[in-house]
Amino acid sequence: MKEREKFLTSLSKILEVKKVKETDKFDSFKEWDSLTILSVIALVNEMFKISISAEDFNKFKNVGKLITFIDKNKKGKK
Amino acid sequence: MKLIFKNKKITGIISILPKNKVYFKDEMKNYNFSKNQSLKLSKIMGYSSRRIVKKKTSVSELCIFGLNYLFKKNLLKKESIDALILITQSPDYYLPPTSNVIAGKLSLNSNVLCLDINQGCAGYEVGLIQAFLLLDQKNISKVAVLNADVLSRKVSLKDRNSRPIIGDGASITIVEKSKKKETINAYIKMDGKSYDSLIIPAGAFKKESDYKTKIMRKDEHGNERSLENLLMKGDKIFNFVITKVPEMMTDLFKDLKIKKNYFDYYFFHQPNKFILEKLAAKTGIPVSKMPNNIVENFGNGSGVTVPLNICFNLGDKAKKNFLKVCLGGFGVGLTWSMIACELNKLSFCKIIEFKE
Question: Can you tell me the distance from the alpha carbon of B62 to that of B249, in angstroms, rounded to the nearest whole number?
Answer without folding.
Answer: 33
